[in-house]
């Protein structure tokens, strides 16, 4: 698109920049006014400040933009400090940075930088609103994690931002919840259980799900749609219903395993939970593998058969490598399903199969201890690392196979 | 083919590990592992320290798994019984749940004198526990109370700290939010008491539809200022956050917030409602498992063990003979007796959870209370 944008024009200061920035100022003024119980006064004052800021920043040309932003933010923070103490400084910084950045962004005409210059003002407005909405979506997805991570370093045993924490004093923070998590059987046993159950359940779902998807993609299989619907059903039926059903289905099975094969009760418990989780994971594998099979060229299997390869060899040497991305992402989904699952394990498992989500669930109900937040933070970190690794490996293999230029 | 072995190897290894780690087997006539169900949190910790750890020290090779499912014990025991797969060996429940489990035949009836240890002076177990044996299936453990805590720093200046249960309803003197349990129990009694009903008449009045209306009308006066809680951890959290000024919860939770966590919270003992918590044994346990459970229960409910539990949590031991043995807090070294709900100074004005009344009227009043909540 860059060749379409010929030049960026500065908009008129008085008819465009000042009114637009004044609107943002009015919004901030309204919010600030609300805190002090006078939104009707805050609104016009905010608008005036916004217009004035736009005018002042437009006059100063010799200074770099980022210096302008921090200069304005410092002034706002200083004013905030006079009225609202520490909270005022933070509020002032936020308002100052956002307003001066906005004023410069509008004033310099950069808001048109991403769009072709034949766009009408309405189209430009929509383009920028769209970006803003995207940013909001991202914010609402990520923001809830921030207090979780922050509170996990709390020095107290409650989900509370203490004054010491808000003032960023060292005594308000501690790693004790992390020691609690890493140092107690209460958390380490569930972690071990999760690490036993999730990988085995994943392996079962991936093997069965991949085979099912390949079978169902053959056009000559009778009743394909019906079989598919049944296999996908654990994803659609409310989990609590599946869980109740599984409880009554697996109980006699477990009793039989214990009574007639003489298996240990705890071992049977693991088998039950692993099978139940495998059932939950299979739909994800089927769906992702079916999707990759759509792009799979059937003539390749015929070619392999032509060369004398038997179906099993064809599967592992020809088909499997090509559908591997679908298998891996299906496997990831299956793993996460099992690793995050709490309802089915509460029903099917007994205390010896207590998984991490189970422990978090009971801990949250009975204790509300920030140890849960420490566990959550560790889990979030691990899943980010896991997904990043998978994505990097995927890019690497694409590059090696010459599928993408990077 | 290589891929197949790649899949199978880790699977086989994991299965082997899983089976090895759980294959510790029985010795003699008792199994060596037990699953005990309790409430989690500080309460379960106190049981682990006072009962389970000493027991495991005495009996080498015994392992105990804890399941924090007491909150849904009745429902789960029903389901397990129906499925014919009872995985629990010993269950910690409130007395009311024990009565229900006993009536439904899900808990085993016990002979308290035969199964439990005598007091050191030779008093029989049934005399030592006395009235607290409220059901044939119930083995009492502790007396706890539901009472009210408040934020000391939010008490209006110039007013004395709350000390009367009716301060809960006094929004003029003590403005701010309240936290009350989302069920009629305790709330209805307190409402009537603060609406001028004499303490001894409370249950007579509450048995009539007019009395129930009266209680709900009293609760109506503070309704807009109430956050309803359902888990024991809620009120301490709300108090610590300063989201409520006053709230009802269990006395042990308040003790932990005030003394152990050092929060700006105070508590009242006025009109505290006593309740009991104890063990039940699931019905029809296999003989070898039952033998282990009996052995454990005999140890865990003797006079010394019940007194020991009070070192870790401020709940009163259910045995009369344990009371004089209550000593100091295990870590803080403070005297625990003044923090017991049963201490004479705290027990000047108390209710005992009225099991008979609530067994008869629970469903009816529950329905009225919930529809009142939904209005």
UniProtKB/TrEMBL annotation, chain A:
Gene Ontology cellular-component terms listed: plasma membrane
The UniProt record lists the keyword Transmembrane helix: yes
Pfam entry (one): BPD_transp_1
Protein keywords: Cell inner membrane, Cell membrane, Membrane, Transmembrane, Transmembrane helix, Transport
Biological processes annotated in GO: transmembrane transport
Topology relative to the membrane: Multi-pass membrane protein
Keyword Cell membrane: yes
Domain ABC transmembrane type-1: from-to ranges: 191-391
Subcellular location: Cell inner membrane; Cell membrane
Family named by the database record: Belongs to the binding-protein-dependent transport system permease family.
Protein name, per record: Molybdenum transport system permease protein ModB
């Amino acid at each position: 698109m860059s060749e379409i944008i010929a030049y960026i024009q500065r908009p008129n200061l008085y008819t465009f920049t000042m009114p637009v920035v004044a609107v943002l100022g009015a919004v901030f003024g309204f919010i600030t006014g609300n805190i002090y119980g006078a939104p009707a006064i805050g609104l016009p004052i905010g608008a005036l400040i916004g217009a004035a800021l736009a005018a002042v920043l437009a006059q100063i040309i010799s200074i770099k933009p980022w210096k302008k932003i921090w200069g304005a933010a410092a002034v706002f923070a200083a004013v905030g400090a006079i009225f609202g103490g520490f909270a005022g400084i933070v509020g002032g910084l936020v308002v100052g940075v956002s307003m001066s950045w906005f004023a410069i962004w509008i004033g310099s005409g950069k808001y048109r930088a991403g769009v072709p210059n034949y766009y009408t003002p309405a189209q430009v407005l929509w383009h920028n609103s769209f970006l803003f909405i995207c940013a909001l979506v991202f914010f609402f997805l990520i923001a809830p994690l921030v207090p979780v991570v922050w509170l996990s370093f709390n020095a107290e045993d409650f989900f509370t931002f203490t004054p010491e924490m808000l003032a960023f004093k060292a005594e308000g923070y501690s790693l004790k919840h992390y020691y609690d998590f890493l140092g107690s059987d209460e958390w380490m046993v569930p972690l071990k259980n999760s690490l036993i159950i999730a990988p085995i359940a994943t392996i079962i779902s991936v093997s069965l799900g991949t085979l099912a998807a390949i079978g169902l993609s053959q056009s000559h299989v009778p009743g394909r749609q019906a079989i598919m619907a049944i296999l996908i059903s654990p994803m659609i039926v409310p989990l609590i219903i599946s869980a109740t059903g599984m409880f009554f289905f697996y109980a006699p099975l477990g009793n039989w395993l214990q009574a007639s094969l003489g298996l240990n009760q705890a071992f049977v418990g693991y088998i039950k939970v692993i099978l139940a989780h495998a059932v939950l994971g299979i739909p994800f594998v089927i769906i992702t593998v079916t999707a990759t099979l759509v792009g799979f060229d059937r003539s390749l299997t015929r070619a392999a058969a032509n060369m004398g390869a038997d179906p099993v060899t064809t599967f592992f040497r020809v088909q499997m490598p090509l559908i591997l991305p679908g298998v891996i992402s299906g496997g990831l989904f299956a793993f996460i399903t099992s690793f995050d699952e709490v309802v089915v394990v509460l029903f099917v498992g007994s205390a010896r199969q207590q998984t991490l989500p189970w422990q978090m669930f009971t801990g949250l109900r009975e204790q509300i201890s920030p140890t849960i937040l420490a566990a959550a933070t560790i889990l979030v970190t691990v899943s980010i690392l896991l997904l990043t690794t998978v994505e990097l490996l995927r890019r690497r293999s694409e590059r090696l196979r010459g599928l993408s230029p990077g | 083919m290589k891929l197949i072995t790649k899949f199978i190897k880790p699977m086989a290894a994991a299965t082997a590990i899983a089976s090895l780690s759980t294959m510790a087997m029985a010795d003699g006539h008792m199994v060596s592992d037990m699953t005990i169900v309790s409430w989690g949190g500080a309460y379960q910790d106190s049981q682990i320290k006072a009962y389970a750890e000493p027991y495991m020290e005495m009996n080498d090779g015994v392992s105990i798994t804890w399941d924090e499912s007491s909150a849904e014990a009745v429902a789960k025991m029903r389901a397990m019984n129906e499925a014919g797969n009872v995985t629990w060996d010993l269950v910690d429940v409130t007395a009311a749940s024990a009565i229900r489990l006993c009536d439904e035949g899900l808990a085993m009836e016990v002979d308290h004198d035969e199964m439990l240890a005598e007091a050191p002076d030779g008093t029989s177990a049934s005399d030592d526990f006395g009235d607290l044996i409220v059901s044939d299936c119930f083995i009492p453990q502790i007396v706890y109370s539901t009472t009210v805590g408040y934020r000391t720093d939010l008490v209006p200046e110039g007013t004395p700290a709350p000390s009367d249960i009716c301060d809960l309803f006094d929004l003029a003197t003590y403005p701010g939010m309240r936290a009350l349990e989302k069920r009629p129990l305790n709330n209805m009694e307190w409402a009537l008491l603060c609406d001028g009903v004499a303490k001894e008449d409370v249950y007579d009045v509450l048995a009539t539809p007019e009395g129930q209306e009266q209680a709900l009308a009293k609760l109506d006066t503070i309704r807009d200022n109430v956050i309803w809680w359902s888990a024991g951890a809620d009120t301490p959290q709300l108090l610590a956050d300063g989201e409520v000024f006053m709230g009802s919860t269990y006395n042990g939770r308040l003790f932990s917030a005030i003394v152990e966590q050092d929060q700006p919270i105070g508590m009242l003992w006025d009109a505290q409602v006593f309740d009991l918590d104890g063990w039940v044994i699931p019905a029809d346990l296999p003989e070898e498992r039952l033998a282990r459970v009996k052995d454990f229960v005999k140890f865990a409910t003797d006079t010394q063990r019940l007194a020991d539990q009070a070192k870790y949590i401020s709940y009163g031991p259910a045995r009369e003979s344990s009371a004089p043995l209550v000593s100091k807090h295990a870590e803080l070294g403070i005297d625990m007796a003044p923090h017991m709900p049963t201490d004479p100074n705290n027990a000047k004005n108390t209710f005992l959870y009225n099991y008979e009344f609530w067994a008869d009227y629970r469903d009816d009043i529950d329905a009225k209370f919930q529809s009142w909540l939904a209005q």
